[in-house]
Amino acid sequence: MTPRIDPSWDAALAEALACPTMAALQAFLDAEAAAGKQVFPAADDRFRALELTPLPAVRVVILGQDPYHGPGQAHGLSFSVRPGVKPPPSLVNIFKEMQADLGIPPARHGFLEHWARQGVLLLNTVMSVESGRAGSHRHRGWERFTDAVIRAVAAKPDPVVFLLWGAHAQTKAGFVRSVAQGGTHLVLAAPHPSPLSAYKGWFGSRPFSQANAFLTAHGAAPVDWALPATA
Q1: Burial level of 70, CB count in 10 A (0-12/13-18/19+)?
Q2: DSSP-derived secondary structure letter, 213
Q3: What is the mean pLDDT of residues 48-69?
Q4: Over the range 20-34, which residues count as b (16 or more CB within 10 Å of their CB) and which as e?
Q5: One of 10, 30, 45, 66 is an active-site residue; which one?
Q6: Which run of H or E residues covers position 190?
Q7: What is the pLDDT of residue 2?
Q8: Which of 31, 34, 41, 38 is nearest to 4 (CA)?
Q9: DSSP summary character for residue 85
Q10: How many Å apart are CA 190 and CA 206, to the nearest integer?
Q11: Cβ(1)–Cβ(18) under 8 Å?
C-alpha cells in the first residue's frame, strides 16, 4: 500500500505500511471493490488527514471511530463532510458543544479542512467503511496502522492534545504518556458525540477551550476553531 501522505510521515509509518497486515488490508479492499461494494471514503481520500497535516505540525489529534457510511459524506477527515453536504448528527453535536464552550455559533457547513491545516489531525481508528454498514471494516488491519500514527505523534517532544471521542478512540490512550503520567501531552477522553452517547458526558466536556488553554500554557498558539463562513 502506497498512500498519498505528507512526506514528513514517511519514516514514522514506513514499517506499518510495509507489514503483511497492510497487504492483507489492501487485498480485502480490492476484493470489496471487485464484489461491487461501495466503500467510503474513496481510495484517493482515505489518507487525506495525513496528507493535509504534516507530522511536525500536529498539535491536536481528534480521534473518532470509523468514517461516515452515507453516500457523499466521508472524505478522509474524521467528522468532516465536503461543502454542500448536510452536517451529520455527530458533527451537529460537535458544533453545539463548541458554541457552549467557546461561544462560536454553528457553522453553515461541515467542512473541517480549516482545522486540519492548523495542525489538527482528524483521524479515525478505522479509515474505511462499507456503505450503510457502520463498523464493517474493523479488525481488517486499520487499527494497527492507526496505532502507528498515534505512536508517531506521541513521540513528538512538543506538547500535543489528544481528544479521544468514544470507546474505540480511547483504546489508543495507552500509546500516549500524558501529563498526568509525567509526560508532555494532554489526553481528554469523552463519549462519542453521536446522538446515542452525546448526553452521557460529551455535552459539557469542553474539549475546545481545554485544548487551547493547554496549548497556550505551553507556548503554542491556540487553534482557531471558528470555521470560515463559506467552505
Answers
A1: middle
A2: H
A3: 96
A4: ebbeebeeebeebee
A5: 66
A6: strand 186-190
A7: 76
A8: 41
A9: S
A10: 10
A11: no
- In angstroms, rounded to a whole number, what is the distance separating the alpha carbons of residues 130 and 40? 6
Nearest by Cα to 187 from 173, 201, 167, 171:
173
> Is 66 a known active-site residue?
yes
Give this prediction's pTM: 0.96
Tell me the pLDDT band of 106, cut-offs 50, 70 and 90: very high
Tell me the average pLDDT across 105-121.
97
Backbone angles phi, psi at 194, to 5 degrees: -65, 160
| The three grid cell numbers given for residue 220, joined into one nine-digit string | 503554542
pLDDT category, 79, cuts 50, 70, 90?
very high
Rounded-to-integer distance, Cα 223 and Cα 213, Å: 10
Query: What is the rounded (10 degree) CA torsion for 86, 91, 93, 96?
Result: -80
Cβ distance 143 to 21 under 8 Å?
no
Write out pLDDT tens, residues 139-186.
999 999 999 999 999 999 999 999 999 998 999 999 999 988 888 999
